[in-house]
Write a structure and sequence with these properties.
Helices cover about 50% and strands about 5% of the residues. By secondary structure, the protein is α/β, with parallel strands linked by helices. About 30% of the residues are buried.
Length: about 425
C-alpha cells in the first residue's frame, strides 16, 4: 500500500494532495484539538490510537488527520468510502484484520462519510471495534448524534473540527505559492475574495489555486476579474441535515432577540443556500404567533401577507416580502404570553379529564334538557349592566385559572388594562370567583 509520503511526492497528484500535511506540526486551523494535553495530539504523536469520529465541515483536515495517525501508529491502513462500499467489502476488511492480528499486526480502518452507512452497516463494526480487531476512525460532516448508531458512537471518541478561518486559509495560500515557487496571479483584494469563495474549505481553496497557477496573462486578476474567472464554491448547506436546523434556529433566535441585522443575515444565508422560501415563511408565521402574539397582533397579519406575496410573485421578487416580514418581526415588541397560556391551559385540560361545563352555559334545544337544568340561570351578557354578567365559565368544582398573563409591551399594555377592568367588574358582581 502506498504511504502518505509516497502520495505527497506524486507530481501528478492534485495540488491539495501534494500539500497534505505529513505531521502534526503542519496541520493548521485546529489548534483547539492540537494542544499538548488533548487526546488527539497525543495520538498524532504516536500514542496508541483509539476509535474516534472526526466531525467537521468539508476541507478541514479529517482525512489528513486519519492518515497521520495511521503513519505514526505503524498500523496497517484500510480506507473505505461509505458512499461506494457495502457490507461485503467491510467483511473482507474484517477478515484481513483478524488474520493480521494473529500475526501480531494491528489494523486502522478509516471510513470517509461514515454517516452514509445505514444502521445495519454501522452495526457490522460493533463486534470488531468491541474486541479490538480494528481501530475505527470515521469522518463525517454531519452531527454524529443524529447520523450514527448510539451503540457504535458510545465506543468512539468524538473530535469536533472547525472550518478553516481566514488566517489558516492565508497560510494555505502561502504554502501553495512556496510549493509552486511563484505567487498567485492575484491583486491583494482578489486574494481576500478567493479566501471568501472557498468558504472555509481548504481543499476547495487549493483546487482554486491549481486553476489559477495555470492562468497565462501577465496582468494579475483583480476581484471583479477573479469572480468571472472562477466558479464560486456552493454554500455549505444541506436542506435535510443539521445545517438546515442550525440556520433556522439562528434566524429564530435573532428575531426573538430583536436583532434585525443578524436576522437578515441568517435569512440571506438560507436563501443563498437554496432553502425553500415557503419553509421559511411557515416558520415566520409560527414565530409571529409564538414570540410576538398579542404584543403586536399585526405581526401575524404581516407574516401571512408575506406568504401571499411570495405565492403570487414567486422568486426572486416575492423574496422581498420575506425580507419585509423579517424586518417587521425583528423590530416588533415581543411576548410569548399567548404561547405560555396555551401550554398552561392544555396541561389543565389533560389533567382534569372530561369535566362538564357548568349547566348554566349549556344550550337547551329540547324540553328534556330544559327540565334537566340546561341553560338555567344563564345571564345574557348584552342585557347585563356594562355588557358583562361576571358569571363563572369554568367547570363546577374547578377554581378560576389565569393562563394568559400579558406583558407590559406593545399592544398587550392595552390588554392588561382590559383584563384589569373585567377583573374588577367580576369581583364586584360575583365575589365568590
Amino acid at each position: 500500500m502506498p504511504t502518505l509520503f509516497d502520495q505527497l511526492n506524486d507530481k501528478d497528484a492534485p495540488l491539495a494532495d501534494r500539500l497534505r500535511p505529513a505531521s502534526v506540526e503542519e496541520v493548521i486551523g485546529q489548534g483547539h484539538v492540537l494542544s499538548e494535553t488533548h487526546m488527539l495530539r497525543q495520538v498524532l504523536e504516536g500514542a496508541p490510537p483509539v476509535s474516534m469520529v472526526l466531525w467537521g465541515p468539508p476541507g478541514c483536515g479529517k482525512t489528513t488527520l486519519a492518515r497521520i495517525i495511521a503513519e505514526k501508529s505503524g498500523y496497517e491502513f484500510e480506507q473505505v468510502s461509505a458512499v461506494a462500499s457495502g457490507v461485503a467489502e467491510l467483511k473482507a476488511i474484517f477478515e484481513r484484520s483478524r488474520a493480521r492480528r494473529q500475526d501480531g499486526l494491528r489494523t486502522l480502518v478509516f471510513v470517509d462519510e461514515i454517516h452514509r452507512f445505514n444502521r445495519s452497516q454501522q452495526d457490522a463494526f460493533l463486534p470488531v471495534v468491541e474486541d479490538g480487531t480494528i481501530i475505527l476512525i470515521g469522518a463525517t460532516t454531519e452531527n454524529p448524534s443524529f447520523e450514527m448508531n448510539g451503540a457504535l458512537l458510545s465506543r468512539m471518541q468524538v473530535v469536533v473540527l472547525q472550518r478553516l478561518d481566514a488566517g489558516a486559509m492565508t497560510q494555505l495560500l502561502l504554502r501553495a505559492e512556496t510549493h509552486m515557487n511563484r505567487p498567485l496571479p492575484l491583486t491583494p483584494d482578489a486574494r481576500d475574495i478567493l479566501i471568501g469563495m472557498a468558504d472555509g474549505d481548504g481543499r476547495a481553496l487549493l483546487n482554486f489555486c491549481e486553476i489559477l497557477f495555470s492562468y497565462k496573462s501577465k496582468t494579475p486578476l483583480n476581484a471583479t476579474a477573479l469572480t468571472k474567472y472562477l466558479q464560486k464554491r456552493a454554500p455549505l448547506y444541506d436542506k435535510k441535515q443539521e445545517g438546515h436546523y442550525n440556520l433556522i434556529s439562528a434566524l429564530h433566535k435573532s428575531l426573538r432577540g430583536s436583532d434585525v441585522d443578524a436576522a437578515l443575515y441568517w435569512l440571506s444565508r438560507m436563501l443563498d443556500g437554496g432553502e425553500e422560501p415557503l419553509y421559511i415563511l411557515r416558520r415566520l408565521i409560527r414565530f409571529a404567533a409564538e414570540d410576538i402574539g398579542m404584543a403586536d397582533p399585526q405581526a401575524l397579519v404581516q407574516a401571512v401577507a408575506a406568504k401571499d406575496m411570495y405565492d403570487f410573485l414567486g422568486s426572486p421578487e416575492g423574496e422581498l416580502g420575506i425580507v419585509q416580514c423579517v424586518i417587521y418581526l425583528a423590530t416588533a415588541p415581543k411576548s410569548n404570553a399567548a404561547y405560555t397560556a396555551q401550554g398552561a391551559a392544555m396541561r389543565d385540560a389533560r389533567a382534569n379529564g372530561s369535566l362538564m361545563p357548568p349547566m348554566h352555559i349549556l344550550n337547551a334545544p329540547t324540553k328534556l334538557m330544559k327540565e334537566l337544568g340546561y341553560s338555567k340561570g344563564y345571564d345574557y351578557d348584552h342585557n347585563a349592566e356594562d355588557g358583562f354578567s361576571g358569571q363563572n365559565y369554568f367547570p363546577d368544582g374547578m377554581a378560576r385559572q389565569h393562563y394568559y398573563q400579558p406583558v407590559e409591551r406593545g399592544f398587550e399594555r392595552e390588554i392588561v388594562k382590559r383584563l384589569e377592568y373585567w377583573g374588577k367588574l367580576r369581583a364586584k358582581k360575583n365575589p365568590a370567583q
